[in-house]
Structure to design on (780 residues):
DNA sequence: ATTAGGG
DNA sequence: CCCTAAT
């Protein structure tokens, strides 16, 4: 069985040597695991060993990543790449591709016929070299990868790169001077270490990188070698399709960026009169159509920023004649007659500042808030924060657009229509009522127009039986909204991240007239009562907002109590509908699940009016909640029964724990995101991609209250239980037989897992390699 | 979306 | 069972 691939490999190797000079490696990459097999095999290959022997002799520990690999190829988009220098090698590459397919197919079928347990991937795995690490001095020298170069990929390079990768050193750090090929996105390095890959196609060999904007790709299964030609045609289509998709995606992104000015969707109704005692009468933006004269691209930044907080800023820029004004002495504003202030990015970044800046250090509330925000942002929005920070750093004075994207400081005696009052308990400094404020020297006052474009609606949690009527659901929502409004609100002022507590000082004293300061001026709406979270909403469209606005959760309304049986018996638990604005909109959860949703949605009870919009309007976004409501209730504890334990043990014995080798290979090949997205495509290729997930799916699918995390945790405790003496164990005793199986399975799978770990010491028989490897390890 | 690991 | 980081 040894010589199966000898000839193929030899040919591949030869072609490889011609096609893949070092200078081109950074573009080629070796994420493609067959390639890495070959690379890893090179030193041994030279010694006359063939791949299969190496596999069976476990001599490929250091770098082998393709054994048992199904013939999955990846054909990503590769449009913008210039391939002209490579044209000559089309034949070589074409041949290489064919060979890869063929060898992969043979490998795959070979492994299928192997005696290995189907549940146990018995191979060794070494993390495949990342393309990011493939840069060498040679690569730096040659600006244009010269495929005709005679430089070849030497084994030492492989080892070095593997070592580098094993050290987890940042790719950028290892090759700082390397100037990227245009086709590569820096983002891919930053955001997705597992992203990137090698393209092996009829069209040539190249690398790709997954980025936020270019994450296209397709996983192809090409097990039938004789269908290569068909594959070719298909590939062409695929590439075209991917191109199309990417283009569409770009357009969509553009839409995302630019469509927030939608006049229809953005106008906001006046706040509900329900604003109780109106300790805060909230500024209102009337329903003026919002028509931006600005070219879209000029305001794109602002819109991006808008999206950052999932703020659906509604509202509009009001004509000056109707803009609400807040006035203060002119001398505070300097001599700008009309000052164009920074647009939303400044506001927003200022907001960001206040969110993350000084504000958090002293005020426990802020801390709570910050905590919450961190949770929220950590979830999915890291890059957004990144954008915001970027914008903040790049804030350059009022270079931005004119038109409506500004906040004006205008003369007080302009006709104004003060339908907004920034209520101040002491009523001294902020007056929106022009009539009262104009009596002070008009000439020395200038007014600032504010409009608050929208208010965030607190997240509403509503539990309602699935048998309930829509009408009752509406009533439930109404109750929740009402509950929010009952608390009453007051307004706080946030200046440069700090709460302004002294109500008697003037705006001048705080320098609020200063444009810079204005950037960081914000208003908070805080509940006067602690437990009832406040909200500003308009009764008319509140439900729309509640369900459609991707708003930051403001508060968790104590669930409208339902006769849910919180007591054990899962059968009696009634499903509930959780109306969660973010993601679980249409999910049905068990009560426990619904409760568990709370973990990220607490502690934002304060509405903040923050200057954040490109139209110079104030937006109200959540800041924090005054008092940390009780944490989201823990899920009900449901001890595992012996039967469950048995099922778990059985499943783990079958599937194993953790990620499979196959999974890791896939990560290398196509990136984790794609593996996630396409995981179902692999289900028939490997016993399990995500093992805990499969354990859950196959063994506990009907147990809705058991998540894969639960199962993983239970396994953890089971292992622990099995290791301790029976006297130390608590709870329902687990049969020793089961515990023994637990230990056995754990031992087996942890051993398997250990094989996947990057070995620090090369196992290669070649002593030269060891030397090189270890010395290079020191280097990193 | 999943896993790893500490609490 | 929760939480978080990493992937």
């Amino acid at each position: 069985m040894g010589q199966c691939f000898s000839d193929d490999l030899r040919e591949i190797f030869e072609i490889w040597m011609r096609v893949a000079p070092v200078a081109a490696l950074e573009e080629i990459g070796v994420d493609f695991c067959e390639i890495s097999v070959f690379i890893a095999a090179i030193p041994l290959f030279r010694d006359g060993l063939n791949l299969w022997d190496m596999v069976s002799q476990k001599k490929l520990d250091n770098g082998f990543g393709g054994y048992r690999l199904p013939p999955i190829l990846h054909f990503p988009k590769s449009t913008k790449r210039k391939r002209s220098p490579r044209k000559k090698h089309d034949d070589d590459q074409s041949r290489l591709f064919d060979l890869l397919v063929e060898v992969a197919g043979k490998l795959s079928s070979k492994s299928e016929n192997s005696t290995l347990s189907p549940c146990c991937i018995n191979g060794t795995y070494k993390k495949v070299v990342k393309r990011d690490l493939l840069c060498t001095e040679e690569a730096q020298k040659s600006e244009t990868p010269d495929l005709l170069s005679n430089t070849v990929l030497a084994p030492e390079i492989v080892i070095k790169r593997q070592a580098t990768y094993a050290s987890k050193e940042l790719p950028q750090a290892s090759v700082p001077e390397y100037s990227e090929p245009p086709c590569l996105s820096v983002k891919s390095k930053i955001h997705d270490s597992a992203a990137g890959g090698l393209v092996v196609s009829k069209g040539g060999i190249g690398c790709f990188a997954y980025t936020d904007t270019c994450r296209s790709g397709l996983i192809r299964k090409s097990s039938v070698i004789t269908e290569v030609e068909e594959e070719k045609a298909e590939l062409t289509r695929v590439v075209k399709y991917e191109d199309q998709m990417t283009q569409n995606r770009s357009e969509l992104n553009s839409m995302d960026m630019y469509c927030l000015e939608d006049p229809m969707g953005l106008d906001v109704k006046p706040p509900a009169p329900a604003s109780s005692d109106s300790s805060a009468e909230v500024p209102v933006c009337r329903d003026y159509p919002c028509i931006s004269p600005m070219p879209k691209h000029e305001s794109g930044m602002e819109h991006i920023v808008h999206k950052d907080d999932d703020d659906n800023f509604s509202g509009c820029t009001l004509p000056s004649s109707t803009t609400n004004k807040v006035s203060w002495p002119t001398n505070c504003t300097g001599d700008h007659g009309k000052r164009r202030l920074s647009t939303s990015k400044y506001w927003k970044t200022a907001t960001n500042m206040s969110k993350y800046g000084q504000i958090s250090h002293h005020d426990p509330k802020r801390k709570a808030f910050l905590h919450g925000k961190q949770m929220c942002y950590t979830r999915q929005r890291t890059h957004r924060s990144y954008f915001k920070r970027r914008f903040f750093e790049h804030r350059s004075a009022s270079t931005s657009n004119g038109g409506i994207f500004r906040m004006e400081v205008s003369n007080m005696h302009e006709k104004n229509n003060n339908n907004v009052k920034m209520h101040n308990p002491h009523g001294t400094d902020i007056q929106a009522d022009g009539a009262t404020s104009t009596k002070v020297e008009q000439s020395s006052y200038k007014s600032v127009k504010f409009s608050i474009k929208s208010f965030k609606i607190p997240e509403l949690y509503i539990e309602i039986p699935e048998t309930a009527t829509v009408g009752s659901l509406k009533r439930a929502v109404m109750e929740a909204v009402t509950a929010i409004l009952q608390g009453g609100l007051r307004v706080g002022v946030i200046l440069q991240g700090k709460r302004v507590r002294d109500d008697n000082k003037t705006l001048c004293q705080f320098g609020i007239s200063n444009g810079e300061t204005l950037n960081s001026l914000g208003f908070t709406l805080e509940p006067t009562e602690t437990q009832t979270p406040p909200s500003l909403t308009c009764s008319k469209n509140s439900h729309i907002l509640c369900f459609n606005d991707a708003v930051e959760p403001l508060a968790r309304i104590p669930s409208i109590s339902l006769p849910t049986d919180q007591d054990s018996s899962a059968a009696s638990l009634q499903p509930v509908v959780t109306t969660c604005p973010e993601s679980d909109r249409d999910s049905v959860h068990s009560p426990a699940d619904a409760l568990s949703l709370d973990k990220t949605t607490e502690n934002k009870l304060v509405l903040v009016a923050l200057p954040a919009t490109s139209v110079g309007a104030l937006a109200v976004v959540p800041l924090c909640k005054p008092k940390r409501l009780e944490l989201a209730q823990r899920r009900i504890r449901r001890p595992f029964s012996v039967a469950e334990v048995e099922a778990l043990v059985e499943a783990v014995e079958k599937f194993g724990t953790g990620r499979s080798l196959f999974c890791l290979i896939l990560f290398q090949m196509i990136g984790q995101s794609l593996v996630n997205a396409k995981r179902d495509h692999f289900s028939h290729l490997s016993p399990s991609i995500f093992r805990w997930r499969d354990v859950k799916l196959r063994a506990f699918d009907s147990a809705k209250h058991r998540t894969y995390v639960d199962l993983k945790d239970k396994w953890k405790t089971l292992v622990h239980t099995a290791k301790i003496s029976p006297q130390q164990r608590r709870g329902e005793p687990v049969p020793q037989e089961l515990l023994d199986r637990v230990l056995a399975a754990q031992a087996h799978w942890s051993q398997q897992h250990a094989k996947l770990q990057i070995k620090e010491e090369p196992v290669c028989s070649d002593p030269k390699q060891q030397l090189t490897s270890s010395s290079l390890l020191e280097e990193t």
